[in-house]
Amino acid sequence: MDHLEEIVLLGLSHRSAEVAIREQYAVQPEDTPRLLQELLEQEGVEEALLLSTCNRTEILIHCSHECDAGELLRFKFFRNLDPDKTYEHRGVRAIIHLYRTAAGLDSQVLGETEILGQLKRAGEIARAAGSMGGVLEPLIQQALSAGKRVHTETGLGEGTLSIARVAVTTSERVFGQLDGRQVVIVGAGETGRLLGRHLLAQGASKIDFVNRTLESAEEAARETGGRAHSLDNLASAMKGADLIATCVDGAPGLITPDHFDRRALGRRDQPTLVIDLSVPRAVHEDVRDLNGVFLINLDDLAPVIATNHEQRGASIAKADELLVGEVHKFLSLRTYASFRPAIAELHRRFEIAREEVLDQVTSGSASPRELEIAHELSRRLLDAALGQLKEGARAARSEEALDRMYQRYLRSL
Amino acid sequence: MNSIQLLTVILPLLYFSASSLYGMAYAEDRQPTWAARAQRSVVIIAMALHVWLFLIHNRESGEFPVQGIALTVSAVALATALLFRVLTLRIPQPSVGTLVLGTVGCLQLVASSFGPMVATGNASPLDAVAILHILMMVLASAALILSGLYGWLHLVQYRQMRRRVFGTLFRNLPSLESLSVMVRRTATAGFVCLTLGLNVGIGLGHARPEHEFKYGDPQVILVTALWLHFGVIAFSRRIPGLNARRASTMAIGGLLALLTSLALMATNISFHAS
Q1: Which residues of A140-167 are buried (b: 16+ CB within 10 A; e: fewer)?
Q2: How near does any CA of chain A get to the CA of B173, in Å?
Q3: CB-based contact A173 B171, cutoff 8 Å
């Protein structure tokens, strides 16, 4: 059986499920190694990787034989969830999906680069947990490399680089210039810091950070010239803030209406903007009802992001074309890798034949010059044979056929 | 058809054309490049022709050209277009321009509908003080119209944010902060002009008994109320609880009151009607 058919990907993302569902099935980084270990204990599962970001939770596994991987993953990760809210890809389709994800083509913000770091970290966690091997390891590496190529060789990510950037653009619609605005970011992780950098670039002069661990908040606040607060002081940190952004993991409903001073809100000239970039959502929905507060979450930003998609048709086509080539390269490498036993046997036979011929011709007393000629001859013949094998591996799956499969995948989205 | 009659027909059309050209800003990337270039030219041509209309009127009648309801409304239309152009010289606001020039077009259409605006030659000659009063009131009206329009757009943008509708309007309108700054800035300009114009007008009313000036005159009451109203908006940042949204709502109310005041000029209710 083709090894590729044993790669299965099951997940949900902004394409299939709204944020209220995504937040229920988000996996925290600290839980990932345990879940990967549990997966490896399942019969037939040889390798596994788990990618959980604010917009997707995906599990990629490599099975040793035809196990009912889809059902297994669904039961383990998405129990009680309407199957329509998830998607399942196998074999080449799973690889195409992974490559498009790495390239930011499947991201909510088209061409964003955060996903590369997130996929890289997911790979590191899986490697540390011992759940990646000969199939998923090269697959992830190649997907990351293809993703980088798309970012550098197409104009896909130009303009809007991340969810954080979209959030900044939205805040500009409220405040115009961010200069002099009091900004508080809850969460000093990568997204929080990225948001801080974007806000600084747009003129914000001082950005405070609130975080579970005060050390991380202090480190982030040093970068933005603001103050650091622990979560215990959340309400006081938020006092008088013009813009509050949350980028925290695993803190549903962290900010409630009680964190706001209603009388102070009424006295403010401009509304307070609260941007919730967390999954699960860190800001309680009731905050939306507060007078003078605009609450925006990831789903609300979807139309802003959709505009970016429309404006980048040419870049998308170029990126897709590049990815077809990259996927084809990976598949050829996989096919060639499956020839390894045959190649080893070929090596062995060439060596035997060379020694036999040398013995016959020189009666066991070959000069160094004759030995050198014999080695060079056998090496060249072997190279020619391996070249033919490589060509055969490339031809085993034509790029045109792969392109058709890629287009079918796109149509199914 | 003489030049004045021709201009009364052309001017509304030109302002509406300019408004349509500015409106193409909402097409974003699909906006034709010529439209962006043509916007400014059409507005400048319209304003130049508008000034020419008043010059012809002045030349033909020998009167100060802003007299009577039609020419006053027309002068307010010109002042609104001119003030908007000055205010947005550094940072053009095409998305707002379409509304402002549409309103200017409507005002000019109303002015043109009152008649061909031909010079009558029977208006009483005006001294410099009366001209100052008229100019200040016209400028104040233009500033207050802009304040009301910016206030309306502020509420539109606020509503978009509240409902999380991030469509074309949201993307193209200025930020809430910029809109509220413009509401207050234009209200302040209107308040200053109104202070001057109102005081000069009251002084004139007292100096000329033939005007039968009364403090109880509906228009005097309305304009005084407007003066207070826009004074509050101008200083709203210093008034606790009077946030940008409330100031915008007040500016819209003020705009409606101003239009009522202009309408009073066309009736026999006010002393100005004469």
Answers
A1: bebbbebbebbbeebebbeebbbbbbbb
A2: 8
A3: yes
